[in-house]
Amino acid sequence: MTYCVGLLLDAGMVLLSDTRTNAGLDNISTYRKMFTFEEPGERVVVILTAGSLSVTQTTMARLQEAAEDTSPDAPPSIMTADTILQVASVVGDTLAAVSKDISSRMTQNADGATASMLVAGQRKGGEMRLFLIYPEGNFIEATADTPFLQIGEHKYGKPILDRVVRPETTLSDARKAVLLSMDSTLRSNLSVGMPLDLAVIEKDDCRVSSYRRIEAQDEGFQEMSNAWSQALRDSFQRIEI
User: Fold this and answer.
1) What is the assigned CATH class of domain 3-234?
2) CB-hemisphere CA count at 13 Å for 208?
3) Per-residue pLDDT tens digits for 143-201
4) pTM to 2 decimals?
5) CA–CA separation, 37 vs 65, rounded Å?
6) Domain residue extents for the chain
7) Residue 176: what pLDDT?
8) Which of 77, 171, 183, 198 lies at a CB distance of 3.0 to 4.6 Å from 66, suitable for a disulfide?
Protein backbone atom coordinates (compact mmCIF):
# COMPACT_ATOMS: atom_id res chain seq x y z
CA MET A 1 0.00 0.00 0.00
CA THR A 2 1.05 3.63 0.05
CA TYR A 3 0.02 7.11 1.07
CA CYS A 4 0.16 10.17 -1.17
CA VAL A 5 -1.27 13.63 -0.56
CA GLY A 6 -1.50 16.83 -2.57
CA LEU A 7 -2.46 20.36 -1.44
CA LEU A 8 -3.75 23.10 -3.75
CA LEU A 9 -3.19 26.50 -2.11
CA ASP A 10 -3.23 30.15 -3.08
CA ALA A 11 0.57 30.20 -2.95
CA GLY A 12 1.22 26.93 -4.75
CA MET A 13 0.99 23.15 -4.47
CA VAL A 14 2.61 20.76 -1.99
CA LEU A 15 2.93 17.05 -2.79
CA LEU A 16 4.16 14.16 -0.65
CA SER A 17 4.44 10.40 -1.20
CA ASP A 18 5.96 7.45 0.57
CA THR A 19 7.85 4.72 -1.30
CA ARG A 20 6.79 1.43 0.29
CA THR A 21 5.27 -1.37 -1.75
CA ASN A 22 4.39 -4.69 -0.19
CA ALA A 23 3.01 -7.95 -1.54
CA GLY A 24 2.78 -9.66 1.84
CA LEU A 25 4.59 -9.27 5.14
CA ASP A 26 7.77 -10.85 3.80
CA ASN A 27 7.87 -9.04 0.45
CA ILE A 28 8.38 -5.32 1.08
CA SER A 29 10.18 -3.12 -1.44
CA THR A 30 10.87 0.52 -2.13
CA TYR A 31 9.58 2.11 -5.35
CA ARG A 32 9.33 5.74 -6.32
CA LYS A 33 5.72 6.96 -6.54
CA MET A 34 6.30 10.58 -7.51
CA PHE A 35 6.98 11.36 -11.17
CA THR A 36 7.77 14.78 -12.63
CA PHE A 37 7.31 16.10 -16.15
CA GLU A 38 8.36 19.67 -16.77
CA GLU A 39 9.47 22.29 -19.23
CA PRO A 40 10.65 24.88 -16.70
CA GLY A 41 8.80 28.15 -17.02
CA GLU A 42 6.27 26.69 -19.46
CA ARG A 43 4.71 23.57 -17.94
CA VAL A 44 4.98 21.32 -14.90
CA VAL A 45 3.10 18.10 -14.14
CA VAL A 46 3.67 15.93 -11.08
CA ILE A 47 1.98 12.52 -10.78
CA LEU A 48 1.66 10.51 -7.56
CA THR A 49 0.64 6.84 -7.76
CA ALA A 50 -1.00 4.28 -5.48
CA GLY A 51 -2.26 0.76 -6.03
CA SER A 52 -1.10 -2.20 -8.11
CA LEU A 53 2.56 -1.74 -8.96
CA SER A 54 2.15 -3.46 -12.32
CA VAL A 55 -0.61 -1.02 -13.24
CA THR A 56 1.21 2.11 -12.05
CA GLN A 57 4.54 1.18 -13.64
CA THR A 58 2.95 0.29 -16.97
CA THR A 59 0.86 3.45 -16.95
CA MET A 60 3.83 5.66 -16.18
CA ALA A 61 5.92 3.91 -18.86
CA ARG A 62 3.22 4.58 -21.46
CA LEU A 63 2.85 8.19 -20.38
CA GLN A 64 6.63 8.69 -20.56
CA GLU A 65 6.82 7.07 -23.99
CA ALA A 66 4.00 9.26 -25.28
CA ALA A 67 5.65 12.38 -23.85
CA GLU A 68 8.83 11.56 -25.76
CA ASP A 69 7.01 11.00 -29.07
CA THR A 70 7.69 14.06 -31.23
CA SER A 71 6.21 12.73 -34.48
CA PRO A 72 3.78 15.10 -36.25
CA ASP A 73 0.82 12.74 -35.88
CA ALA A 74 1.42 11.92 -32.21
CA PRO A 75 -1.71 12.19 -30.01
CA PRO A 76 -1.78 14.73 -27.15
CA SER A 77 0.52 13.80 -24.28
CA ILE A 78 1.29 15.18 -20.85
CA MET A 79 3.77 17.55 -22.48
CA THR A 80 1.62 18.69 -25.41
CA ALA A 81 -1.94 18.82 -24.04
CA ASP A 82 -3.35 22.34 -24.23
CA THR A 83 -4.62 22.44 -20.63
CA ILE A 84 -4.02 20.65 -17.34
CA LEU A 85 -7.59 19.37 -17.61
CA GLN A 86 -6.58 17.64 -20.83
CA VAL A 87 -3.49 16.31 -19.05
CA ALA A 88 -5.79 14.72 -16.45
CA SER A 89 -7.84 13.18 -19.26
CA VAL A 90 -4.71 11.74 -20.90
CA VAL A 91 -3.62 10.22 -17.58
CA GLY A 92 -7.12 8.90 -16.88
CA ASP A 93 -7.50 7.29 -20.30
CA THR A 94 -4.08 5.65 -20.02
CA LEU A 95 -4.70 4.38 -16.49
CA ALA A 96 -8.11 2.95 -17.43
CA ALA A 97 -6.68 1.18 -20.49
CA VAL A 98 -3.80 -0.34 -18.53
CA SER A 99 -6.08 -1.47 -15.68
CA LYS A 100 -8.46 -3.13 -18.13
CA ASP A 101 -5.64 -4.79 -20.05
CA ILE A 102 -3.93 -6.22 -16.97
CA SER A 103 -7.19 -7.31 -15.33
CA SER A 104 -8.23 -9.17 -18.48
CA ARG A 105 -5.04 -11.24 -18.30
CA MET A 106 -5.57 -12.28 -14.70
CA THR A 107 -7.59 -15.39 -13.88
CA GLN A 108 -7.71 -14.56 -10.17
CA ASN A 109 -7.60 -11.43 -8.04
CA ALA A 110 -8.55 -9.21 -10.95
CA ASP A 111 -9.89 -6.66 -8.51
CA GLY A 112 -6.34 -6.11 -7.31
CA ALA A 113 -5.18 -4.80 -10.71
CA THR A 114 -6.25 -1.25 -10.01
CA ALA A 115 -4.54 2.00 -9.18
CA SER A 116 -5.30 5.65 -8.54
CA MET A 117 -3.25 8.76 -9.17
CA LEU A 118 -2.92 12.40 -8.18
CA VAL A 119 -2.11 14.79 -11.03
CA ALA A 120 -0.90 18.29 -10.17
CA GLY A 121 0.22 20.87 -12.66
CA GLN A 122 0.22 24.28 -14.25
CA ARG A 123 0.82 25.70 -17.71
CA LYS A 124 2.21 29.17 -18.32
CA GLY A 125 -0.70 31.59 -18.20
CA GLY A 126 -3.04 28.97 -16.74
CA GLU A 127 -4.27 28.11 -13.27
CA MET A 128 -2.77 25.54 -10.92
CA ARG A 129 -4.93 22.41 -10.85
CA LEU A 130 -4.95 19.20 -8.82
CA PHE A 131 -6.89 16.05 -9.78
CA LEU A 132 -7.54 12.62 -8.29
CA ILE A 133 -7.73 10.01 -11.08
CA TYR A 134 -9.76 6.89 -10.29
CA PRO A 135 -8.97 3.41 -11.71
CA GLU A 136 -11.77 3.76 -14.27
CA GLY A 137 -10.18 6.93 -15.64
CA ASN A 138 -12.71 9.42 -14.27
CA PHE A 139 -11.51 12.10 -11.88
CA ILE A 140 -12.36 14.81 -9.38
CA GLU A 141 -10.64 18.14 -8.79
CA ALA A 142 -9.44 19.93 -5.68
CA THR A 143 -11.30 23.18 -4.96
CA ALA A 144 -11.24 26.02 -2.44
CA ASP A 145 -13.74 24.04 -0.35
CA THR A 146 -11.60 20.89 -0.52
CA PRO A 147 -8.01 22.06 -1.08
CA PHE A 148 -6.36 18.66 -0.63
CA LEU A 149 -6.64 15.20 -2.17
CA GLN A 150 -5.29 11.85 -0.94
CA ILE A 151 -4.78 8.35 -2.32
CA GLY A 152 -3.79 5.10 -0.65
CA GLU A 153 -3.94 4.73 3.13
CA HIS A 154 -5.37 8.17 3.73
CA LYS A 155 -7.57 7.78 6.81
CA TYR A 156 -4.86 8.22 9.45
CA GLY A 157 -3.48 11.40 7.93
CA LYS A 158 -6.76 13.11 7.10
CA PRO A 159 -7.77 14.61 10.50
CA ILE A 160 -4.90 17.10 10.70
CA LEU A 161 -5.49 18.21 7.11
CA ASP A 162 -9.18 18.74 7.82
CA ARG A 163 -8.31 20.94 10.77
CA VAL A 164 -5.48 23.11 9.48
CA VAL A 165 -5.36 23.24 5.67
CA ARG A 166 -7.11 26.16 3.98
CA PRO A 167 -6.44 27.82 0.60
CA GLU A 168 -4.62 30.65 2.39
CA THR A 169 -2.29 28.25 4.26
CA THR A 170 1.34 29.20 3.63
CA LEU A 171 3.66 26.83 1.82
CA SER A 172 5.77 26.52 4.98
CA ASP A 173 2.77 25.48 7.06
CA ALA A 174 1.58 23.23 4.22
CA ARG A 175 4.86 21.32 4.22
CA LYS A 176 4.52 20.84 7.96
CA ALA A 177 0.90 19.70 7.58
CA VAL A 178 1.61 17.03 4.96
CA LEU A 179 4.64 15.74 6.88
CA LEU A 180 2.63 15.44 10.10
CA SER A 181 -0.15 13.78 8.11
CA MET A 182 2.39 11.27 6.82
CA ASP A 183 3.87 10.83 10.31
CA SER A 184 0.44 9.83 11.66
CA THR A 185 0.09 7.32 8.84
CA LEU A 186 3.56 5.86 9.35
CA ARG A 187 2.80 5.27 13.03
CA SER A 188 -0.52 3.52 12.35
CA ASN A 189 0.07 1.51 9.17
CA LEU A 190 3.08 -0.68 8.42
CA SER A 191 2.23 -0.76 4.71
CA VAL A 192 3.39 2.87 4.44
CA GLY A 193 7.10 3.54 4.84
CA MET A 194 10.15 5.71 4.30
CA PRO A 195 11.82 7.26 2.41
CA LEU A 196 9.46 10.09 1.47
CA ASP A 197 9.40 12.37 -1.58
CA LEU A 198 8.32 15.98 -0.97
CA ALA A 199 7.80 18.46 -3.82
CA VAL A 200 6.65 22.09 -3.79
CA ILE A 201 5.41 23.97 -6.86
CA GLU A 202 5.16 27.71 -6.23
CA LYS A 203 2.37 29.52 -8.07
CA ASP A 204 3.33 30.51 -11.64
CA ASP A 205 6.80 28.94 -11.37
CA CYS A 206 5.74 26.19 -13.82
CA ARG A 207 8.47 23.97 -12.42
CA VAL A 208 9.18 22.01 -9.27
CA SER A 209 10.33 24.84 -7.05
CA SER A 210 11.83 22.54 -4.42
CA TYR A 211 12.24 18.80 -3.95
CA ARG A 212 13.41 16.80 -0.95
CA ARG A 213 13.99 13.08 -0.37
CA ILE A 214 13.48 12.31 3.32
CA GLU A 215 15.23 9.17 4.52
CA ALA A 216 14.33 7.10 7.59
CA GLN A 217 17.19 8.58 9.61
CA ASP A 218 16.39 12.20 8.74
CA GLU A 219 16.96 14.17 11.95
CA GLY A 220 14.63 17.02 11.06
CA PHE A 221 11.71 14.69 10.40
CA GLN A 222 12.34 12.78 13.62
CA GLU A 223 12.49 16.01 15.64
CA MET A 224 9.22 17.16 14.12
CA SER A 225 7.60 13.79 14.85
CA ASN A 226 8.74 13.81 18.45
CA ALA A 227 7.64 17.42 18.95
CA TRP A 228 4.19 16.63 17.54
CA SER A 229 3.81 13.60 19.82
CA GLN A 230 4.79 15.67 22.85
CA ALA A 231 2.43 18.48 21.86
CA LEU A 232 -0.45 16.01 21.58
CA ARG A 233 0.34 14.49 24.97
CA ASP A 234 0.55 17.93 26.60
CA SER A 235 -2.75 19.05 25.03
CA PHE A 236 -4.43 15.83 26.07
CA GLN A 237 -3.42 16.36 29.68
CA ARG A 238 -4.75 19.93 29.69
CA ILE A 239 -8.23 19.01 28.50
CA GLU A 240 -10.83 18.82 31.28
CA ILE A 241 -13.99 16.74 31.02
Assistant:
1) alpha beta
2) 17
3) 999 999 999 999 999 999 999 999 999 999 999 999 999 999 999 998 899 999 999 99
4) 0.94
5) 12
6) 3-234
7) 98
8) 77
